[in-house]
Amino acid sequence: MKQFEKYEFIELHDARINEIITNGNDLSIQFSHIPVYKNHDEQKYAIWAYQAVLMCKDVNYVSIRGKWDNKDDYIIESIFFEESDYKHFDITMNNLNNLKKIEITMFNGANIKITCNKINIVLGESKGIFDYFKKE
Amino acid sequence: MNDPVNYYDVIGLQTTLVLPPAPGSFPPGWEVDPKHKDPNGTRLRNPETGDYVDFHKGQAGKKGWKGKDHYHHNGGEKHLKPGTEIKLNDVENNVNSCENSGTGVFFPVYDEDGNIVGYSDGGEIIDPNIIPFIPGVLSPNFIYPGTVTVPRLVWP
Lengths: 136, 156
What we know:
heterodimer, A: mainly beta, five-stranded antiparallel sheet, B: mainly beta, four-stranded antiparallel sheet, three-stranded antiparallel sheet, 1 helix, 9 strands
């Protein structure tokens, strides 16, 4: 696992969940695909496909409503909250340490909400660059 | 005039599709999948070819592709801008690759003049031009009796 892999931002939009695992007070969401934006050149980001695990430590609230098909459904929306309820729509290396809450909506409307003491994301195996995004 | 490139394809020659600016501009033959409830997007399916596309409306102020209108084709991860031309499955391969097939009793469906316009097992009316593609069951020259039994077509 490349915990300190450098990236500009990670978007859960289009990410695919493989499994959700609880372990005592902790919970982890395992992603089979997650888009990771890295600087490619001055004009564009390269979007790398990674496997990843999002870890929620000391969970004090979790809600999963609906069900989804791992093959067919993916994340359409994700919102991360700081303790003050300040919202982020993506993960950066700067905001990661301050995140306490996450809300995920799947393409079919299923919904996941987790509140915890600390959120971390660990990037696993990369499947390489699958797309690019032009910088504004 | 049949013109698949400009979204108009009455005789079913469509093998490619130029992704339109929004889901409301899709050509005939594409249907909204109501099972998907994305508030910022739509899944459209083409039952004839088995293709589906997901449209994601870009959200103002969001970074990355989440902030731009884009599509995904057949569950692919690549982001496709409106205006991108995609290659559709061909109808023959789609029918031959149907999974979960069972057996259904299909009846001819006639128009007001007594012409066969399709076949149905009580549900969707299936284009008669597709029926002969089912391998080993019906041939192009088959004379359809009042009742024919063919594999049930279950669109993926």
